[in-house]
Sequence to fold (273 residues):
Amino acid sequence: MTGEIERIVVSLDAVSEIQATIEAASRLALRWNAALHGVFVEDEDLLRLAGLPFARQVSLGAGTEALTAVQAARQLRAFAETARRELAAAAHRHDLRWSFEIVQGAAGPDTVATAAGDFIVACAASRPIGAHFRIDTRWSRTGASGSGSLLLMHPARAGGAVVTMLHDREPASARVLEAAAQFAEAADADLVVICAPELARDKVFETWVGERLAAYSVHARIEPAPGDPAALQRHILGLDCGLLALAAETEPADPDRRREIAIRTGCDILVMR
Fold:
């Protein structure tokens, strides 16, 4: 699985938690011997808004003042430069090949272009507003990228089990199982494989899982999935899930359902293609 990943693409913008996202992306690039590529997205909606005569901004100390397109562009470039420095510092710490670009659009799969061999790391929530309040980023609302695998991070989350949901023994399931094992091994976390009850009782499936995990030092167990989505969410929540790993071919087609799982469980989401 790791041999297929050539580049870790980290999606950056002015509102997301860039330090945690860059560090996670850097560790993946180091583990998989991949290049690190940062994409800073300048919010085109903000730039359009700033061009309107009634646009205002509120800042600490200055109160309310006019927001112009020139000011908005200057502020976004300052955020981009901060992101570039953070990415360069992380690449230097981990001795990684790195690159960086600035694009305009909406921070999400439609703007962050990917190619075969790319793995995307993105943040699911903004930096905290006040002490704790965060808002969802566009990544959490729109879901996985079109061509690359994705790690969607929740910055406030730390620790917990790695949970993967498997439906068969196809190559896509093998890829997500091995990826989940790598994340569990790196975090020294338990790995829970959830599958249909008939698969959980299948000795052939149990052997297949064991063979896929033989190369990893992880404590793994297979559990049957509850019968309905609400019970499944409660079960994942009860496992103290830190990362939920899904195969793209079998993930919920409705991104709202994945978002609901993430919100209810607090899990990071890994989608493997």
Summary: Residues 110 and 145 are 8 Å apart (CA to CA). The first strand starts at residue 7 and ends at 12.
